[in-house]
Amino acid sequence: MIDKTLPNGVMFNTYPDSIGFKLSDTIKLLKQPELQNAFSLFYILPTFFQSDLDRGFSINRYELNGELVSEQDLQTLKEMNIVLKFDLVLNHLSVRSPQFLDILEKGYHSSYRDFFIDWNRFWEGEGEMGEDGYIIPNEAHLNKLFMRKPELPILMVRFPDGSERPYWNTFYQQIHYRTLEADDINHFRMLPPEGIKTILAKFNARITAGKDFHNIDLGPYQDYLEQVVSIVESKRRYLGQMDLNAESEVVWEFYEETLKRLADYGGKLIRLDAFAYLHKKPGLTNFFNVPGTWEYLDRLNTIAEANQLTLLPEIHAQYGKHLHSAVAEAGYPIYDFFLPGLLLDALDQGRNIYLLRWISEIQTQGINTINMLGCHDGIPVLDLDGFELDSGYQAGLLDKADIEAMIERVLERGGRVKNLFGPDGKKIAYYQVNATYFSALGEDEQKLRLARAIQLFMPGIPQVWYLDLFAGKNDYAAADRGGPAGHKEINRTTLTNEMVTTGLQSVVVLDQLEMMRLRNTAAAFNGRMQIIDTPADELQISWSHEGDTAILKANLENHDFTITHSSEEAGTQLYDYTKH
């Protein structure tokens, strides 16, 4: 058993540039009188590092992003006694990382060739070579693949000799082709100026339109087609997140260097992004297969402990798989991805039954959690579902009808949806709904207050997304600008310093900060939690420690609630959040 005691307190969560222009603007906010003693932890998302897409989760280098972050920022946060949390994006690294660029430059001779997963070498002997140059795994293997997009997770990578190799690419990928210029082809023998003009026009029209250019009819210049295609392909550029080959010791050297660097930045908590995808083996699922996933996690934990770091494995999976229990039983804190949906159900339906079941499980199993309302990602819905195990169907925290109804309510309120896919490209499940939590609640300020209060009275560290604090609404323009992959931008609006100043005068913002200050400072939350019996449309939670008590009494139908705090030093104080 691994002892992973989490620090107590409230955690703020932003990108470095979510507020104002850079991290120093967020630090100024944290110093404002209204936020005094409201937060003691800070989760800074990975545009903190050098990255190129997926809003920071496609990291090039774990060096400071000098446009947004400075050494002085880190020193200031240290002086403020703010505990820092960072990401280690465990499963993948950007195509623009030094390691992948080395492959593009040196091909088979690169010392990093095995740093990433060569698809064909991985599946050798486990499938048939397809006409596009990559192995199609046997059907038994395909049926076990956990897919994040509708096609096989492959990026075809062109080596310097013109050959192409498929590399494993679970998440985002894109290939860009540069339009041709006359200098690219004017050295062709016996190609007249009119031929250059024709070739440029036809190729560039296809490239600009994003259409295939490999079989263009060049008329009298058809003999040049293969040469021109080769030139265009040689100048291709990539965007994407390439899966790391954790069977390579070079990758483990990289993890050691990175964890030490994160500790040097002042990090204490490290979120292992996408860790369940890391271990891959033919014949097993590519998501949390065992025992390999545990072996990797134990090895990472040894490195983390040497750097005084606490690991927070991030995993999205159906409740019915009980992976959250397995991670917790191994001694690791878990992310409470169930709470956002359970609160939506409780506040929309006016019932406590499903929320109380989850609270009871946390208490009886002694699970350490970090919880949230909204976050940089979507609102989890897949997580609430049941799952068919070999031992039989394991129920979810909500039944499918309630999950579907909740999704429809959020979509009716303007949310958008993210899906998962099977190997045949068909959607197999909703994954997340994308909305600000305030908009998901129907933009009802009283419901937001109560959701926040319940979150703060839950076991674990309450993590607060900056946009939820300021009652942010769905940003449809940002989501539309992001194109097909822009759904997450609906909940990532950048707040100007002027918007923050105005927001700090809002009652719903100040009420949340008042509750956070209590949660962050009251000794009661270091003690024992108790659920008091109530009717199904009410909720009562108390915390007590050495004479200090805090009690939440809430009506889940009309969303009125009070908080009572008592201590020997300050006496009894009532926080009344009933509607007037």
Written account of the structure:
There is one protein chain. The protein is α/β, with parallel strands linked by helices. It folds into three domains: 11-90 and 269-288 and 311-379 and 435-521, Glycosidases (TIM Barrel), CATH 3.20.20; 98-242, Oligo-1,6-glucosidase, Domain 2 (Oligo-1,6-glucosidase, domain 2), CATH 3.90.400.10; 523-580, no CATH class. It is 33% helix and 23% strand. It has an eight-stranded parallel β-sheet. It has a five-stranded antiparallel β-sheet with strand order 23-24-25-26-27, with helices on one face. A hairpin with a 6-residue loop joins strand 23 and strand 24. Helix 12 packs antiparallel against helix 13 (353-365), helix 12 packs across helix 16 (445-457) and helix 16 runs parallel beside helix 20 (507-521). The longest helix has 17 residues, at 193-209. The two termini are 50 Å apart. 42% of the residues are buried.
Counting DSSP H or I runs of 4 or more residues, the number of helices is 20
CATH class of the largest domain: Alpha Beta
The CATH topology annotation of the largest domain reads as TIM Barrel
Oligomer: single chain
Provide the residue-averaged pLDDT. Answer: 95
* Relevant CATH superfamily of the largest domain: Glycosidases
Keywords: Glycosidase, Glycosyltransferase, Hydrolase, Transferase
GO molecular function: glycosyltransferase activity; hydrolase activity, acting on glycosyl bonds
InterPro entries: GH (IPR017853), O16G_dom_2 (IPR045857)
Protein name: Glycosidase
